[in-house]
Amino acid sequence: MLQATPLTDGWILRHPEGAAAALPAAVPGCVHTDLLAAGVIPDPFLGRAETEVAWVGRRDWTYETDLDAASAHEQSDLVFDGLDTVAEILLDGRVLGRVRNMHRSYRFDVTGLSGRLAVRFASAYAEAEAMRGRLGERPAAYAEPYQYLRKMACSFGWDWGPTLVTAGIWRPVRLEHWSTARIARVRPVVRVEQGTGQVELAVDVERTRVEAPLTIEATVAGVRARAEIDGTEGTVRLTVPDVRLWWPRGYGEQPLYDVELRLLHGDAALDAWRRRIGFRTVGLDRSADEHGTGFTLVVNGERLFARGVNWIPDDVFPSRVTRERYRTRLRQAAGAGVDLVRVWGGGIYESEDFYDACDELGLLVWQDFPFACAAYPEEQPLRGEVEAEARENVVRLMPHPSLVLWNGNNENLWGFRDWGWEPRLAGDSWGEGYYLGVLPRVVAELDPTRPYTAGSPWSGTWDRHPNDPAHGTHHSWEVWNRRDYADYRLSVPRFVAEFGWQAPPAYATLRRALPGEKLAPDSPGMLHHQKADDGNGKLRRGLERHFALAEQGAENGSARDFDRWHYLTQVNQARAVAAGIEHWRSRWPVCAGTVVWQLNDCWPVTSWAAIDGDGREKPLYHELRRLYADRLLTLGERERGLELAVVNQAARAWTGTARLRRMSVEGTVLGETRVDFGAGRRAVARLGVPKELEPVGPKEFLVADADGSRAVHFPAPDREVPYPRPEFDVALVPGGVLVTARTLVRDLLLQADRLHPDARADRGLVTLLPGEEVTIGVSGWETPDAAAARSALYCMEPSR
Fold first, then answer.
1. Active site residues
2. Are 648 and 658 in contact (CB under 8 A)?
3. Less Cβ crowding at N or C end of the chain, within 10 Å?
4. What is the pLDDT of residues 634-658, one digit of tens each?
């Protein structure tokens, strides 16, 4: 039987700077984490230390350990699951091989060998710049040369990430000893029809003895089948009756089936392959209709409005992301009502731990191939590397039922058309051959059960603009970059794959990341941890459209002014995303999905994330729980007046009576009625609001309530609303804080991390009418105190 031995101990890192000739190295890991553990560099996440460690990415590095491949087996292989990125592998000075792709695994024959193993990493900068010199300049959204090698692009920095160009053995390494034959690859094709599952396992083997007869035997759900290996290939097929379907969360359960495949020589087992699969069908409806061209995911025949988030690497040093950290973050996503996670193209193909968690949680995965925001050369050796990595990762990820869509790239088709690339390229290659040629061919050949789309955004053809909202996927970035979030309501894209609004991280995250700094929006550390072009300017302009900053927390340097700015930016982020999702969900089935930019961060930073770099949930996260719930009420202005949309994504119809109240900010009910409604399963009902209930002027607003759901509509921006001075009582109750309003209290927020860095609140922004109360659950708070709780509560205040 194949024997695998991890190679995790005894590694050292040859360090070219300073007195120490070598440092202890963790494998898996990277140079930065080893230097950090040894105290050679400061933590680049703190203050402005990122700039102090920029030299690391410009150096060559060597990992070393002793290797003894002696074994009674016929062959021994040295297997690297991931090397970042350009490296030469040597044993006692003899070259075993050279590699140049972070997204691939590598195998070297070391049968009977022993000696000093060295993995010499060249600077990724040096390799990328050399390739640029060979192939010529290619345009990109950023100045760094990330498009010239197959490496995680965002390690070169992004508009939310630091520039920390890594190197290292970033995924596990092991010795594999085997005899006669081993399983080289298993390509599982899983289908289901009328309750019967079909599993086809196409197997490639590697042999030491060509003449040895080989058999493969597979089992799933008590069904067993065998087949012979013809040379180095074989296929075994299993029919599984009465399978239970795997569903996205909110649509059903997620049953998973264990599959085991064994490679046999006679009765002797030589090798085994084990995975979990799920039975489900997936399709993408791109039919043309009177609104344009659709983009609707269909799972098990059920058409979905995708409630999505974009995922970036959860750490700029991805070797630090553990199985439990993946699960924590993805549980947070599921807890917010998310049912789709898009793995963005400037990152990586994530580890099995990520996709395992998505399988179990019912989170659909949209997987980008790793291309983002740049023109990518198609010449060799890059073209060969792209096809090799695609072939490996498509097959690696095929067992996962959560994976439902392959996407060719992020924004590159759009960039070619709109960002001035075409004239600059002057006919040079830029990636089109990947997105419209290599990648769809690989997916069609290897993974025929899943749809492929050439890019995001993409309208389906060069006859239309790539980012045409009426066709296919759309990225909405005019809002945030140039326009107010109210403009989300001006269009109904078929599928919104990116949109978002920035806010700073939680207060405790800022305090940890910027120790000793007097916090201000423009303080040195705050500016360093704001990577977006004119990010603070866009935050400020976004606030000015809605709030009277001079009276509600001007930036004059006091702690209170920073606190108000911090609170208001959090409110604005939540309101911006709400404006988009409420509008687009109310337009189902024309709009078939929203994918918020972004779920998570890779370090402490002001960004579009709902969960900050320390894992703390921003108010946006809690707002997503409301916005992505099965049932949602929303009020919006339409051509014929104010409209109440009853959005029902549940499996059963939603019928009931909505209570509508026109109110004054002083708390007086100016008008009231009840409206019966009925929204079918997975459907939306839209009801006109009676004219006499539409609020008039800044002193009035409208409240709609039904079955515990609420929508609030203020017709004027906050800067014009004469809010009363908020009055409320605060009391401690078991497990949390009880707040009772004596006036209108708009957008009340308990910032639990101000009570203790480990404290968490179970809800975000809430608006209370006079006499209403809310219990805010708090965990991780060591010494509950009502006065402290009051000091951590924020809400809208009157102009002063």
1. 411
2. no
3. C
4. 999 988 889 999 999 999 999 999 9
